[in-house]
Specification:
alpha+beta, single chain, 177 residues, Chitinase A, domain 3, seven-stranded antiparallel sheet, 2 helices, globular, 7 strands
Length: 177
């Protein structure tokens, strides 16, 4: 085989390989990347917050992140209203459970007004001051509160929280200011 013939065969092989690769690329066959038409999540509907009678569920699955403080947080739903800062007053609705799923308190119910929290006030429980900032009005967040950020070794007998208890809280940010 002559040098000219070998070069011609090599060019034909490269052309065929490039054509096959182009066809596979255009058709999507052999792609290792899954393509979705829903790349960005549907924005939440924040025209109005959930009703005060809405039901929080201890069994709602939530992906959480752990902060240096030990507080675990994860958004159940994203709000689209104004965001809570690290100071100022916010208004929330919430449900608190013991780690075993026993409900301690809920502020949801007919006629229940939102609860006000002063996020910059050291008298406000630490888990509120650490867990609410960054939430947007209309959003709901899960807080998993270690005993040191909740009621510690004393517990809270009036609230039915035993000593050294981890709390699970679903909190909805109703409004800021």
């Amino acid at each position: 085989m002559s040098r000219h013939s070998a070069v011609l065969h090599a060019r034909i092989a490269v052309t065929l390989a490039a054509t096959a690769l182009g066809i596979l690329t255009i058709s999507g066959c052999g792609s290792l990347v899954e393509v979705s038409s829903h790349i960005t999540p549907v924005p939440p509907n924040c025209a109005t917050p959930r009703p005060a009678a809405a039901v929080d569920s201890f069994t709602t699955p939530v992906a959480v992140q752990t902060a240096a403080s030990g507080l675990e947080t994860g958004d159940i739903s994203m709000g689209c209203g104004p965001a809570a800062g690290t100071s100022g007053t916010v208004h929330v609705q919430f449900t608190v459970w013991l780690q075993n799923g026993t409900r301690v308190i809920t502020t949801r119910g007919p006629g229940q007004p939102p609860n006000s929290l002063a996020l910059g006030d050291p008298q406000t429980l630490a888990f509120w001051r650490l867990g609410v900032p960054g939430m947007r009005v209309g959003g709901t967040r899960r807080l998993i509160v270690p005993p040191a950020l909740a009621f510690g070794t004393a517990g809270n007998s009036s609230a039915g929280v035993p000593p050294n208890t981890t709390l699970v809280i679903d909190v909805e940010l109703v409004s800021v200011g």
